[in-house]
């Protein structure tokens, strides 16, 4: 590396690498938890963030946080299992903004129960949201980005459950493992179009999905499998994760700071899983 190249990596680049000013982002699952934290952080970085979720009331809360950031956001009620609805929303956002730079497929649900008792309905319900919903957004976002001709970033949400065999999480773990392969395939096919596709695989994060009882707008959500105290004892960092911990990984993958990353799995999990 020449002296000139070294100088180019100065404070200014450190600040601008994460600057999303002038870019448009679409985030599913934005009504709560990781999706909400990611939407707010992307807005703080300068992006115009379109927030989508089936939970309309939760979306209103997210927009309030974005406005206080301060930032710019819009809310869209969306069922990610509806392919036509996903296509319509992506088309509307891309047409209205003139571009779609970032798509984050964060919407997800969990089902708990013994593997031997998993029914077709259990599996199909989780796969519809966690796999098909991700597929639909990736496809439609990719089409919009290719048509625009500019570089883009697609971010999926996997899970630490893909690295270990957690009991009671068969449909969820299977769906998230499938997301990993989906991410790698899209990354391979979209690379020539300058579209990066990466995934975030969080560990135990303090979100409504992990709290006892159903999350607002998500009746499928099951009770958590472990308490925060139990998780903190097992984690090398000695604590559970917060949505903001994951949101920073989303921002990294959305920004130019990760311009040479694609097909990768980022694991903000406090050290709970360390794959070989």
From TrEMBL:
<dbReference type="InterPro" id="IPR002347">
    <property type="entry name" value="SDR_fam"/>
</dbReference>
<dbReference type="GO" id="GO:0016491">
    <property type="term" value="F:oxidoreductase activity"/>
</dbReference>
<keyword id="KW-0560">Oxidoreductase</keyword>
<protein>
    <submittedName>
        <fullName>3-oxoacyl-ACP reductase</fullName>
    </submittedName>
</protein>
<dbReference type="InterPro" id="IPR036291">
    <property type="entry name" value="NAD(P)-bd_dom_sf"/>
</dbReference>
<comment type="similarity">
    <text>Belongs to the short-chain dehydrogenases/reductases (SDR) family.</text>
</comment>
<dbReference type="InterPro" id="IPR020904">
    <property type="entry name" value="Sc_DH/Rdtase_CS"/>
</dbReference>
<dbReference type="Pfam" id="PF13561">
    <property type="entry name" value="adh_short_C2"/>
</dbReference>
């Amino acid at each position: 590396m020449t002296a000139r190249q070294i100088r180019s990596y100065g404070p200014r680049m450190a600040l601008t690498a994460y600057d999303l000013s002038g870019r448009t982002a679409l985030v599913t699952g934005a009504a709560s938890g990781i999706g909400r934290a990611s939407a707010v952080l992307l807005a703080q970085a300068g992006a115009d963030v379109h927030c989508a979720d089936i939970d309309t009331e939760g979306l209103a809360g997210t927009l309030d946080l974005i406005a206080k950031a301060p930032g710019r956001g819009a809310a869209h009620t969306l069922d990610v299992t509806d392919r036509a609805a996903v296509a319509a929303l992506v088309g509307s956002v891309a047409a209205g903004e003139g571009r779609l730079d970032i798509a984050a497929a964060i919407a997800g649900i969990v089902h708990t129960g013994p593997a031997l008792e998993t029914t077709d309905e259990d599996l199909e319900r989780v796969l519809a949201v966690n796999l098909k919903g991700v597929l639909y957004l990736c496809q439609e976002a990719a089409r919009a980005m290719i048509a625009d001709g500019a570089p883009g970033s697609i971010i999926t949400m996997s899970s630490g459950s893909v690295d270990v065999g957690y009991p009671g999480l068969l449909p969820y773990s299977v769906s998230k493992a499938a997301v990993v392969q989906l991410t790698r395939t899209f990354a391979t096919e979209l690379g020539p179009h300058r579209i990066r596709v990466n995934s975030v695989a969080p560990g135990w994060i303090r979100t409504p999905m992990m709290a006892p009882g159903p999350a607002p707008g998500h009746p499928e959500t099951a009770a958590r499998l472990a308490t925060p105290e139990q998780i903190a004892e097992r984690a090398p960092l000695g604590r559970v994760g917060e949505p903001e911990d994951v949101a920073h990984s989303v921002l990294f993958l959305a920004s130019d700071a990760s311009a040479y990353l694609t097909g990768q799995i980022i694991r903000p999990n406090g050290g709970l899983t360390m794959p070989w």
